[in-house]
Write a structure and sequence with these properties.
It is built from twelve helices and six strands. The protein has 394 residues and is of the alpha+beta class. Strands 2-3-1-4-5-6 form a six-stranded mixed sheet, sandwiched between helices.
């Protein structure tokens, strides 16, 4: 058994194994991690194409040459489609252009197989067309993926594949080491055939890493953010508040917090249904985020109550931010709603989280007791109340 045949058979088994790995992952990972099925099919299609190459001389050239190499190209195209889905990107080109791309590839192979048989041109065509697809894969990976281990492994594998094809095309153009067939045992041909044996598992490893990294990021996001409003959840908000307190104690910074409650939210749920109530919560969070500064943190504190942490902000500045929030809720509502706000400021070094939240909660209660749709602030002791009603009438 000659060396090219051994290499091709090894690549075939590796491709099938990697297809199995990706298939299992595609069935076990969450559906929001897209592209896994495409990557599984990519390895499978390549694996099915390699036996056809091995069967050269035993089956018609339509299968062992044209179809086999088309399946290799299709495998790279599936990788490209999978990566785009994984990154949440739309297809770059239309199906019509993709069809023309494949048609051009098949036409050239048919021409250089039946009309003007030429092994060199077939090898050049395969390298050129796959080079285009792999180069686009590399461009997407560099532009869209975060700089993680999975992305680095994928970039390395794609770079090797691109380099191999550039070298092979250059050797063909210069007339060096011209191929005589798939089982040509020249050094350059052996190296070229051996690369998929290494790159298929390496590419699969990169895809597994990318999927695992995204799963970890999604789990971290879920553990810290509210699914509905995409605001910080209460646990993450308390952690952020502790960090802000530590910073205030260390540097002597000011900061304030804002407790926000949607007025008569239970009535909205009872009258319009919980689905519409959810839409109101999402609408509020969107408007609130646009009213806050980039450094401010908004969290869903529970039900229809939210908390905003306002770094480097005293009560006077916090009141201005609260006023912007009131103004942001005035117009464009499908269902009329308003908010009541309570403010409190971090006072001294020996202040506490409980005291800070208690003051804000009492200010919020006063806002609601005073007619809602307004802001109240507690500047110090519970008896020292600063009323700052919104100009919007309740």
């Amino acid at each position: 058994m000659n060396a090219p045949l051994i290499i091709l058979m090894t690549s075939c088994f590796v491709a099938f194994a990697m297809a199995g790995v990706m298939f299992v992952i595609s069935r076990t990972y969450p559906k929001n991690i897209r592209g896994l099925t495409d990557w599984s099919l990519a390895a499978l299609v390549m694996g099915l194409g390699l036996p056809l190459l091995i069967a050269k001389g035993h089956v018609p050239d339509l299968f062992s040459v044209v179809l086999a190499t088309l399946m290799i190209l299709a495998g790279f195209m599936l990788m490209n489609a999978g990566l785009r889905k994984f990154c949440g990107m739309p297809a770059r080109i239309s199906r019509a252009l993709l069809s023309l791309f494949v048609l051009a590839y098949v036409s050239l192979f048919v021409w250089f197989t039946y009309v003007q048989p030429d092994v060199t041109m077939r090898v050049a065509t395969l390298n050129l067309f796959t080079l285009v697809v792999i180069f686009d894969l590399l461009r997407v990976a560099l532009k869209q993926l975060p700089g993680t281990a999975g992305r680095n492994v994928l970039v390395f594998a794609l770079t090797i594949l691109i380099g191999a094809r550039v070298v092979r095309l250059a050797s063909l153009m210069l007339g060096l080491d011209q191929p005589t067939g798939i089982f040509d045992a020249s050094v350059l041909q052996l190296v070229y055939l051996a690369i998929p044996t290494i790159m298929i598992p390496l590419g699969t490893i990169s895809f597994v890493l990318l999927a695992s990294e995204k799963l970890r990021r999604d789990l971290e996001f879920t553990s810290r953010y509210d699914d509905l409003t995409q605001c910080l959840n209460k646990r993450a908000a308390m952690e952020a508040l502790q960090r802000e307190i530590a910073r205030a104690r260390r540097r002597g910074n000011k900061f304030s917090i804002m407790l926000v409650d949607l007025d008569h939210f239970k009535n909205i749920n009872d009258t319009h249904g919980h689905l519409e109530g959810d839409r109101v919560l999402v609408d509020f969070s969107r408007r609130a985020k646009s009213s806050l500064r980039e450094t401010d943190l908004l969290s869903r504190f529970g039900g229809d109550e939210f908390m905003a942490i306002l770094p480097d902000t005293d009560l006077e500045q916090a009141s201005l931010i609260a006023q912007r929030l009131h103004e942001a809720t005035r117009e464009g509502q499908s269902i009329a709603w308003s908010v009541s706000i309570g403010l409190s400021e971090w006072l001294v070094q020996d202040d506490s989280v409980a005291a800070l939240l208690t003051r804000a909660d009492k200010a919020l209660y006063k806002s609601k007791a005073s007619g809602r749709n307004q802001t109240q602030a507690i500047s110090g002791l519970p008896s020292a109340l600063l009323a700052q009603p919104s100009p919007i009438s309740p």
